[in-house]
Design goal:
Length: 623
């Protein structure tokens, strides 16, 4: 396709918004609005039969839209006017002899036409149709022309690109009560736009294509979606909409029930850094794909989602959203609810960036890991009251889990009252951090009320360094086995001043913190581990680990049914420094400390509770 002039595109864009607001008032009288620039076409079911020998008046209508366009072009060449209306009555189709090479209806020639409105009846009980009958494309537009359909259905198109409508360096508007429906092609079953403009107030529905079932836009193309994209099908990617380096804006629109059968982006697929999609107050629901049931963004594409709902989307990876290769998604005041996937029930992040503020990821489910979010490279930032809640991971085998969040690579940050709440998994009900390639910055916020059927009610960290910040809280989580608050193996854990672990429970080991396998724990400042409960190690249970408690840190009011109310340690050491306190803890054996082959060292702190030692545990040392 020949390249088009950018200035021409800008003129089209401006003209489309000058004309479009006047198109949708029901019951408008063509003659009063457009003077004599109305041509009538009658098809099957019309009260008056059409004939191409007629002049195209109401009482003597034409039989084809193309003939009406021929008359419009001649009239426009004689005297310029702004808009021409083709008034369509009934079902209009073309015979094989009438069919144009590029489509049933073609609008070509720069400056050859005014803005064109193809209009059916305003009576919603009637359906006026342009039907290509499977013989080719319905509508072809190029050379800077501006076309709108209103109260009309375009159907029956078959073409390699843009089976319903093909737009090249032009503008096409789907008006209210209008449908591009049941067309089938290779790229863009409903509409294909090449360096042009697509505006949707009506519906693009029930179309099929290899890619871009509903609509495909590429190059310097722009989509403005106010209406509905529904029930479209792509054998590969972009069930609803495909943006290949194109830009889009969805305002109050609906992307629902679309499918990308063996590819990505059931609702929307976008790729390349030029692809920018802004979504405001939209509903993206019930879409399906292999990856990114609702939205798939890749190759530096950028998505901004404001005040939207994405629900009940389904995929193998990333039920609502899947992101790969430096894509970025920003969620503001939005809800990701009730989506499902094998991994990343809500969202899957692969070497990309996700930020969320004043938004929630809730009630999503992963058959594998990451009920809410799966992070595999890149960054995930929760801020400004962001909430990940009531999500579920069904993974039973190690190392699967992460009811709320599963992170295997990248940087995960929580701050500004972010919350991970009431999630469920076998391991890491709130958060599962897997491998040393994860950096977890828990600056502030809360992990609470999460439930693990085995380990790590709040957080499960495997060979990952964890930093619990000054305003971070881990509370009221539970694990049926070990680590009600935190379960960590290998690497280090640091609790900054003001960090708090409280009210967590475990059925067996460590209500607050379970740490094992050559690990170092530092509890600083006035960090507090308080009111946690387990069979052994009410506050903390350590195996082959060292613990340093310093500053004004407190281990208090924890309870172990059996051993180590405050701390239970095997094969390690506890260092109690400066003003740190261990007090008010309860257990059958060792209310303060329970030691097996372990030592404790008072270096200025206060140990008010009992110490129980077994086997070769050394006594107290004061350095």
């Amino acid at each position: 396709m020949k390249p088009k002039n950018c200035n021409l595109l800008m003129k089209i864009y401006i003209l489309s918004f000058i004309i479009t607001p006047n198109l949708f008032a029901n019951g408008i009288l063509e003659r009063s609005a457009y003077s004599d620039h109305v041509w009538f076409v009658s098809g099957e079911g019309a009260a008056v039969a059409g004939d191409n020998q007629n002049p195209g008046t109401a009482d003597k209508p034409l039989a084809s839209v193309q003939q009406a366009l021929t008359l419009i072009r001649a009239a426009y060449a004689s005297e310029k006017f702004d808009t021409a209306v083709v008034r369509i009555d009934g079902k209009v189709s073309s015979t094989e002899n009438e069919f144009q090479v590029l489509g049933m209806i073609t609008i070509q020639g720069e400056g050859a036409y005014p803005a064109i409105i193809l209009r059916g009846s305003s009576d919603t009980r009637r359906i006026d149709i342009l039907d290509a009958g499977g013989s080719g494309r319905v509508l072809y537009i190029e050379d800077g022309n501006n076309v709108t359909i209103e109260n009309l259905t375009l159907t029956g198109g078959r073409a390699n690109t843009g089976a319903g409508v093909y737009v090249s360096a032009s503008s096409f508007t789907v008006g209210r009560n209008s449908f591009v429906q049941d067309n089938e092609g290779g790229l863009g079953g409903g509409v294909c736009v090449d360096e042009g403009i697509l505006i949707i107030h009506g519906s693009i529905t029930g179309n099929k294509a290899e890619n871009g079932g509903g609509a495909a836009l590429h190059g310097k193309a722009v989509a403005e979606i106010f209406g509905t994209i529904s029930g479209n099908y792509a054998a590969a990617s972009g069930g609803g909409v495909l943006l290949d380096g194109a830009q889009g804006k969805i305002t109050g629109g609906t992307i629902i029930g679309n499918t990308a059968y063996r590819g990505s982006g059931g609702g929307i697929f976008l790729q390349k850094k030029e692809a920018v999609l802004v979504i405001n107050r939209a509903d993206i629901s019930g879409n399906k794909a292999e990856s990114g049931g609702g939205i798939f963004a890749t190759a530096e594409a950028d998505v901004r989602i404001n005040s939207c709902v994405m629900r009940n989307n389904d995929a193998m990876a990333g039920g609502a959203i899947s992101m790969l290769y430096n894509a970025s998604v920003a969620l503001f005041d939005s809800k990701i609810i009730g989506n499902s996937a094998r991994n990343g029930g809500g969202i899957l992040i692969g070497a990309s960036s996700l930020s969320m503020s004043d938004s929630e990821i809730r009630d999503n489910e992963a058959g594998g890991s990451g009920g809410g979010v799966y992070l595999s490279g890149g960054t995930f930032t929760m801020s400004s009251n962001a909430l990940v809640s009531s999500n579920r991971s069904s993974a039973s085998d190690y190392p699967g889990g992460g009811g709320g969040i599963y992170a295997v690579n990248g940087i995960f940050t929580m701050k500004d009252n972010a919350a991970v709440r009431s999630n469920y998994a076998v391991r890491g009900a709130g958060i599962y951090l897997n491998r040393e390639n994860i950096i977890f910055n828990f600056e502030s916020g809360v992990v609470e009320d999460c439930e693990a059927s085995r380990h790590g009610g709040g957080i499960y960290a495997d060979n990952t360094s964890v930093n619990i910040g000054k305003k971070a809280v881990i509370q009221n989580n539970s694990a049926a086995s070990s680590g009600g608050g935190i379960y960590i193996m290998r690497n280090t854990v640091t609790f900054e001043e003001g960090a708090l672990i409280r009210g967590d429970t475990a059925g067996l080991n460590s209500g607050g913190l379970f740490a094992a396998d050559k690990i170092e724990i530092n509890i600083n400042g006035n960090a507090v581990i308080r009111g946690n409960t387990a069979e052994n190690g009410g506050g903390i249970l350590l195996v082959n680990a060292d613990l340093v408690i310093s500053g004004d840190a407190v281990i208090a009011d924890n309870t172990a049914v059996s051993s180590g109310g405050g701390i239970n340690i095997t094969d390690g050491n506890v260092y109690i420094n400066t003003n740190a306190r261990i007090e008010g803890n309860k257990a059958k054996d060792g209310s303060g400390l329970f030691l097996i082959n372990a030592g404790y060292h008072l270096q200025g702190g206060n140990l008010a509770d009992d110490v129980y030692k077994r086997r070769d545990s050394p006594g107290e040392s004061q350095d």
